[in-house]
Amino acid sequence: MPLWRAAILGFQHLLAMYSGDVLVPLLIGGALHFNAMQMAYLISADIFMCGVATLLQLKRTPLTGIGLPVVLGCAVQAVTPLSAIGTQYGVGAMYGAIISAGIFVFLSAGWFSKIKHLFPPVVTGSLITIIGFTLIPVGFQDLGGGSATAKNFGDPKFLLVGFLTMGIILGLNVFAKSFMKSLAILAGILIGTFIAAAMGMVNLNAVGQASWFHLPQFFYFGTPTFEWSSILTMILVSLTTMVESTGVFFALADITGKKLEGADLKRGYRAEGIAVILGGLFNTFPYSTFSENVGVVQLSGVKTRKPLYFSALFLILLGLLPKIGALATVIPDPVLGGAMIVMFGMVGVQGIRMLQQVDFQNNNNLLVSAISIGLGLGVTVYPQIFQALPQSLQIIMNNGVVIGSFSAVSLNAIFNLQLRRKLAPGRAQMTTDTQPKTTD
Q1: pTM value?
Q2: Which residues contact 70 (CB under 8 A, 6 or more apart)?
Q3: CA angle 315-292-164, nearest 5°?
Q4: What single string gives the DSSP state of each residue in 389-428?
Q5: How far, in whole angstroms, is CA 430 from its chain's centroid?
Q6: pLDDT tens digits, one per residue of 189-238
Q7: Of all residues in the chain, what percent are helix, strand and coil, respectively (each to 5)?
Q8: Where are the alpha helices (DSSP H) in 282-361?
Q9: Cα(52)–Cα(46) distance, integer angstroms
Q10: Phi and psi at residue 222, in whole multiples of 5°?
Q11: Contact by Cβ (8 Å): 74, 272
């Protein structure tokens, strides 16, 4: 692949994840009442670290790197607990908890990678289906304007721009050929943004206010402190991101035709652990593998890592040049929403494709998949169902991906693994009985 094509495809990956990544510093910085200068640092440092974290995961070494076409970004499930920790115990405790969680992920990578047998196709297919379909509401929220509580949510002009963006992506996939077809998402976002600008929906103030250059620093907001309940909370959050990353790893392995071994998973978890530690040191956030980009890989048909290296490079440059990086923030929410619905739908369907390998004549497999997908989608629609539980449990229970994953793994272990163990002695006896007997 020529470098210029890889660079354009890498930019497409960047746009697919950029809004979701910028959202995390905006939410946490707002909750902690950061001023404009602090917010500018937080966003630029976060984007820089996304590039570094992506490089750690792309490049396989003896110690780290899953070696799949992945992009890493802020773990959105960390927003609520980090905001609570920062408000109650201070920013230092927040970053101390992130560093501790990163160390936990790195040290537990070997143990976590040994549970690969718990993720057969019925589990991984269900998990990836849940990941895709639980993200669809995020796309619809952006399609309606970004905030469901806003008075103009669902404004016809928002819907028009969002559906036009979706239509452009679909049209290019149907009628375009070769390289242009692989750029359908990028073209849809750019054309949608120009249409939105003509309708007065693009604001360039953020570009004018951003500085030209900013270098990330260690402990910019203060020295980390270590508070046990905050550390425990972030370890729980890290477990949820490891489960989600596992699903993304298997989805990308299925798309690219690579068979994942325990050693691959171990390197992947270690890379994320190091990324989380660096996030705490540079006073940013914990990082995990973004599921958004699975849809980009599937839709573009480009399965090599070369474009992702460009994505990582672009993220690092944007982190150093906040004014240029701010250009990506002017993309209207409805445009991103239209693109997200297509991408997240593709992730969900990728899970369904994996479920085609499963024998659903076996009622146990049917129950594992049906109940797990149902629970994952149900919690996503009504997360407040667990509001009476302690805050530490809500962190886990409010995440549809985690609930669905836990259900799939547990039910598969109960229905299938236990059943195989019970049948194994009988099968062994039958094999022995049918062996030809020899005489001296």
Answers
A1: 0.68
A2: 54, 57, 58, 248, 252, 289, 290, 293, 308
A3: 100
A4: S-HHHHHHHT-HHHHHHHHHHHHHIIIIIHHHHHHHHHHH
A5: 47
A6: 888 889 998 888 887 776 777 677 778 888 888 889 998 878 887 887 78
A7: 75, 0, 25
A8: 292-300, 306-320, 322-325, 333-355
A9: 10
A10: 140, 165
A11: no
